[in-house]
Amino acid sequence: MAVRTGPKVTSVAEAIAAVEDRSQVALGGNTVHRSPSAVIHEMVRQGKRDLTVVKTAGGYDVDLLCGAGCVSRLIVAYVGFENLQGLAPQFRRAIEQGRVALEEQTCTSVITGLRAASQGIPFMPIAGMSGSDIVPGRFLSVPNPYGEGEVVTVPAIWPDWAIVHVQEADEQGNACIRGTQFEDVLMVKAARRVIVTCERLVDGEELARQPELTTIPGFQVDMVIETPGGARPASCAGYYGVDEAYLAEYYRAAAGSPAGLTTFIAEHMGQAEPVGAGER
């Protein structure tokens, strides 16, 4: 893992301009909770293409990227809107129409792959997968070196980028996740480069007063962006809940005609933020 130093505060537009097409991107949060939505919207505005997205359980973020044509491959266990709307319509259409290749996994296997990468090893054994329909053709088994039988293994997942949204961070990228961390810390350790968006950019001394609350150390972070409301319409613990009205409006557009989704994107995401807005 490289140590990241130097100026890190930037804008969403500058950060996403650095994410190349065909990159593998791990997205933080889970379903409709603490997703890096502001970054997702900027990917749509900038017209990113052929991304591979890694996430255990996606929702609005993954569905929107599928509908906007930003994704060509998914490594996921679940994509949906939980008990709010149910299945993810754009995700489903993209898979059925062959526009997006799906590498179906379990939440545990995605976590295991990220954990292997975070530890710098090529694979890791996993329990509970023997006999699963997901294993054949995807995961290899190796002889148990300490006993009888074989053990299923999961290859390391090495994202080019991890993008996470947190509650607070300082200018060096030290970040505090309040509430459930999901897989964010693992994907930050596994990724080659890291973008952190935050509700509040705070003075480093504020985090230093309670160092145990620093979930992500700054030396792992390449860019940090103050983005109030950056998870909306997903929730962000301690700041706001799920925007159910927005998600219902999105779902109606996503489940309808392509023109309806195009109109929704134009109305809610607007024009791309000009590159250079984050310079200080």
Structure report:
With 280 residues, the protein is an alpha/beta fold. The protein has two domains: 12-121 and 156-268, Glutaconate Coenzyme A-transferase (3-Layer(aba) Sandwich), CATH 3.40.1080; 123-155, no CATH class. It has helices at residues 12-17, 37-46, 60-67, 82-85, 89-96, 107-118, 184-190, 204-208, 244-255, 258-269; strands spanning 24-27, 51-58, 71-79, 101-104, 123-125, 141-143, 150-155, 161-169, 175-176, 193-201, 223-226. Helix 6 crosses helix 7 and helix 9 packs antiparallel against helix 10. Mean pLDDT is 92; it is low at 272-280.
Describe the main β-sheet briefly. 8 strands, mixed
Overall 3D form: globular
Helix/strand structural class? alpha/beta
CATH level 3 topology of the largest domain: Glutaconate Coenzyme A-transferase
| Count of discrete structural domains | 2
Question: Proportion of β residues?
Answer: 15-25%
Q: What's the end-to-end separation, in Å?
A: 27 Å
What would you say the CATH architecture of the largest domain is? 3-Layer(aba) Sandwich
Poorly predicted spans: 272-280
| Mean pLDDT rating | 92
- Tell me the number of helical segments per DSSP (H or I, 4 or more residues long): 10
| DSSP summary, beta strand count | 11
What's the name of the CATH homologous superfamily of the largest domain? Glutaconate Coenzyme A-transferase
CA-atom Rg in angstroms: 19 Å
Q: Look at the structure and give the CATH class of the largest domain.
A: Alpha Beta
- SSE pattern, N- to C-terminal: HEHEHEHHEHEEEEEHEHEHH
Helix content: 25-40%
